[in-house]
Design brief:
Layout (H helix, E strand, L loop, with lengths): L11 E3 L6 E13 L4 E12 H16 L78 E4 L3 E9 L21 H12 L6 H12 L3 E4 L1 E4 L3 E5 L12 E8 L6 E5 L5 E5 L19 E11 L3 E4 L8 E4 L2 E13 L5 E4 L2 E3 L6 H6 L28 H4 L6 E5 L4 H23 L7 E5 L8 E4 L2 E4 L9 H12 L7 E3 L6 H18 L4 H25 L23 E3 L12 H17 L1 H15 L2 E3 L2 H9 L4 H18 L18 H12 L6 H11 L6 H13 L6 H10 L5 H9 L3 H14 L5 H11 L1
Parallel strand pairs: 2-12, 18-19, 19-21, 22-24
Antiparallel strand pairs: 1-23, 2-3, 3-9, 4-8, 5-6, 5-9, 7-8, 10-11, 11-16, 12-15, 13-16, 14-15, 17-18, 20-21
Helix pairs in contact: 6-7, 6-8, 7-8, 8-9, 8-10, 9-10, 10-11, 13-14, 14-16, 16-17, 17-19, 18-20, 19-20
Length: 784
């Protein structure tokens, strides 16, 4: 794949070959140096080759469809402190001078390892001198491709996991007595697939493996967007080392993090939700399908606080007088793009006084108290899931901490600290169990380009929400809390479908906020209508001022979610600088969901949302699951009645023209308008319908007299099957139902039937002067 993109204008490439091999776990061991503005250290990747995870994904998809899934039964993660020492102590005999520093513009003077500089290979992975095979179907070495940008990769080596005492028990084959590649890979295969109730043991083994010595350097190459790693003689993903260590450092200009000063003038660094995500923070697999867990040890000067996406509320461990270490872990598989870190001189904010009510409502959840009774069926890959724990599902307010520069203490106490408990409680009352066990909230520096950003276990908020009363703070807090369910626990499989997270979060922020304020139904409705009015005006302005191609909810259309054979893809408009300032996807998604809520009624709508969350948490989705939910609604009595009628009509269509005298005449049920629409849509899926069947359909349901939705489907049937006796119905529709007729013009023209094309042109000549200008232009382009 030869990808040459302008980072200032074009689509974002996802280069990782996730179809061949997946990262299951990352262990990061990093030092933060504010003087040089560099984060430096190692990352150990634990890999699983394609054959295994494809089987797992297949079983998960089958589980989603099955109502007879067995319940997941395992414990909840508890705070776990596993000190990870610096992995470099195991390679002290090797110095950085022994290998090339592959950074853009630097000349590689040591090519003994097959390493090359970024400049030489900026055109893409196909220009690699090795011409390695990224799959397992060629004769060349297998190539592991990771998303990587703005990093200096110093060295890559295989990790000798067999050197870790106790891990030999993970080898099932007695014949594997000699330490070999197969032996080490089998250990990793067993480690990454340990059951969820052994998560603590698994983390401990990951940490110990990450400190194991290397057992051979691997060849690597870098280009603008990727890091490519190979081992001589390893021709398939199965043969490739399943545990590798990468030594690297970030660059001050790297786009994944921002080095700046906080509101008190103290230095800090944090991930900013960059369009390139985390590939300039650590080499990783960026496609959302690469769901992984992680653990990280980060060292910084003792005056700094390290916050990170992690299930534990980390506390510093003093290593020496002026340096502290912080350790975080995550056991819920998440895309690497959701990893978040912030290092600064933050102060933990606490309420000066707590009311008895506050103390009564917030009770930290203790896993030791957990009742592990089965609560419901989960369809995701196995991990310690809160939805499986009865105590967790009743926890209205999860433990939370608030951090900010000390100069904002007063503002945080006046607004933010008081709002978090009622907003968390409101979210729980609407959607149920919080997907994450705790929450850190950080007021980020003034240069943060958004009002907020949600990540697993941590939330960034702008200082702008702290002034002018509670309203902006409350609504933005509710929006980011909603992302715990929509955007994090349930993620989009294709990032272009951001409306799946932003639309839901925008719609839910109003609901959460009204609940948190304990508004009466009338007051809540009035508030939400006013906000809808404001959003409508904003959407109109944005649609007038932004490029049309940037307004589409699914810019890749039918190819949404598609990747190359290797798993590589591009995110349409992902690098467009205007995109981050656009809200069209928020607003379009919001109005779609608002329409559904009004159409269904609040009780039905929110019941559906809770069911949706329970079904799809821990998974990635496209828009299709929403369509699948509509199909699931086909189990209602009215839909079952339609299916029965469809079966009758198919039978009628198959009958011979000359029927036996004794054959019983079919009796058809009377159908509602929506049922008729569904019936005709089902019949449109049939390859052929005879004129006799079509005439019987028209006569049975008086289709020419039905509403426009029904008549539109009827006209489609007429055009598809060239039912000339009913062409008058098509002419009538094109003239009287112009708002819905554009699609029919297209159907008439693509049929390549001369009579149908004449009909289309004739109708257009009659109506073009009265048609909407844009519609007329579209139709004219179809016809001429």
């Amino acid at each position: 794949m030869d990808i040459q993109l302008d980072p200032a204008r074009d689509d974002l490439p996802l280069m990782a070959n996730t179809s061949h091999i997946l990262v299951k776990h990352y262990v990061l061991d990093l030092d933060v140096d504010f003087e040089s503005q560099v984060i430096e250290g190692t990352i150990v990747l634990f890999l699983e080759d394609g054959n295994r995870f494809k089987k797992q994904n297949s079983s998960i998809e089958e589980a989603c469809q099955s109502e007879s899934n067995k319940a997941c039964k395992f414990g909840m993660p508890e705070p776990c402190h596993i000190p990870v020492t610096n992995a470099r102590t195991f390679s002290s005999e090797m110095e950085y001078n022994d290998f090339a520093i592959c950074s853009k513009g630097e000349k590689d003077t040591s090519d003994k390892d097959g390493n090359h500089d970024n400049q030489e290979h900026a055109s893409g992975i196909s220009s690699s001198k090795y011409c390695c095979d990224t799959g397992n179907h060629g004769s060349e070495d297998f190539l592991l491709v990771l998303d990587c940008c703005d990093l200096s990769v110093l060295k890559v080596e295989e990790v000798d996991v067999a050197a870790v005492p106790g891990l030999e028990k993970f080898t099932r084959s007695p014949e594997l007595t000699v330490v070999s590649e197969e032996f080490r890979n089998q250990i990793v295969r067993e480690l990454v697939t340990l059951p969820a109730n052994r998560w603590r043991e698994q983390l401990d083994y990951y940490a110990r493996c990450s400190q194991a010595p290397g057992c051979g350097e691997l060849l690597f190459d870098t280009d603008t967007w990727s890091l490519q790693i190979r081992k001589t003689g390893a021709q398939t993903a199965t043969d490739f080392p399943h545990a590798i260590r990468i030594w690297y450092k970030t660059k001050p200009e790297g786009r994944s993090v921002t080095w700046t000063s906080d509101q008190s003038g103290r230095p800090c660094v944090y991930t900013v939700g960059s369009p390139i995500n985390n590939r300039a923070l650590f080499p990783c697999q960026e496609p959302p399908v690469a769901m992984s867990t992680w653990q990280a040890t980060v060292r910084a000067a003792a005056s700094f606080v390290v916050l990170m996406s992690g299930e534990n509320s980390a506390k510093p461990t003093q290593l020496w007088e002026e340096c502290s270490s912080w350790y975080y872990y995550v056991t819920m598989p998440m895309p690497a793009s959701t990893f978040t870190i912030a290092v600064g001189c933050w102060t933990e904010m606490k309420m000066e006084t707590w009311s008895s009510n506050d103390l009564a409502t917030e009770r930290p959840f203790s896993p030791s108290e957990a009742n592990f009774r089965h609560v419901g069926v989960c369809s995701h890959m196995e991990y310690p899931c809160r939805f499986q724990n009865a105590s967790a599902t009743t926890q209205e307010i999860i433990p939370h901490r608030v951090f900010a520069p000390v100069c904002l203490t007063g503002a945080c106490q006046e607004t933010l600290l008081r709002l978090i408990p009622p907003c968390l409680s409101a979210a729980h009352s609407v959607l149920g169990a919080h997907p994450f066990s705790r929450l850190d909230v950080l007021i980020v520096p003034a240069n943060f380009p958004s009002l907020g950003m949600a990540s697993p276990h941590i939330m960034f908020l702008s200082q702008s929400i702290l002034t002018g009363g509670n309203h902006l703070c409350g609504t933005r807090l509710c929006h980011e809390i909603a992302h715990a369910w929509f955007g994090l626990a349930i993620g989009a499989r294709d990032w272009t479908e951001e409306w799946l997270s932003e639309g839901f979060a925008t719609h839910l922020e109003d609901v959460f906020w009204a609940t948190a304020q304990q508004l009466a139904p009338y007051e809540a409705r009035e508030q939400q209508e006013l906000r809808a009015c404001l959003r409508w005006r904003r959407l109109q302005d944005e649609m007038q001022c932004s490029p049309e191609e940037m307004q589409v909810l699914r810019p890749s259309k039918d190819k949404t979610g598609h990747t190359s054979d290797s798993g590589a893809s591009v995110i349409k408009h992902g690098l467009n600088p205007e995109k981050i300032f656009m809200q069209v996807h928020y607003l379009k998604g919001y109005f779609l969901l608002r329409f559904l809520a009004k159409r269904l009624g609040d009780e039905t709508y929110f019941s559906f949302l809770r069911k949706f969350v329970h079904t799809f948490h821990g998974q990635l989705i496209l828009s299709q699951p929403l369509q699948r939910e509509r199909r699931a609604g086909a189990e209602c009595g009215l839909a079952r009645q339609v299916r029965a009628e469809v079966t009758k009509w198919i039978g009628v269509n198959r009958r011979p023209r000359k029927r036996k005298r004794r054959e019983k005449e079919e009796v058809f049920e009377k159908l509602l308008p929506d049922q008729l629409v569904l019936l005709l849509e089902h019949l449109l899926e049939q390859k052929t319908l005879s004129p006799r069947t079509l005439q019987s359909l028209q006569r049975t349901y008086h289709l020419q007299d039905q509403d426009a939705e029904v008549r539109h489907r009827w006209c489609e049937l007429i055009v598809k099957h060239k039912f000339t006796k009913a062409y008058k119905s098509v002419e009538r529709f094109l003239q009287e139902d112009q708002a819905m007729g554009v699609y029919l013009y297209g159907e008439l023209m693509v049929s390549e039937d001369a009579r149908q094309q004449q009909l289309a042109r004739r109708c257009f000549e009659r109506t073009k002067e009265q048609m909407d200008r844009s519609s007329a232009q579209v139709v004219a382009e179809m016809l001429f």
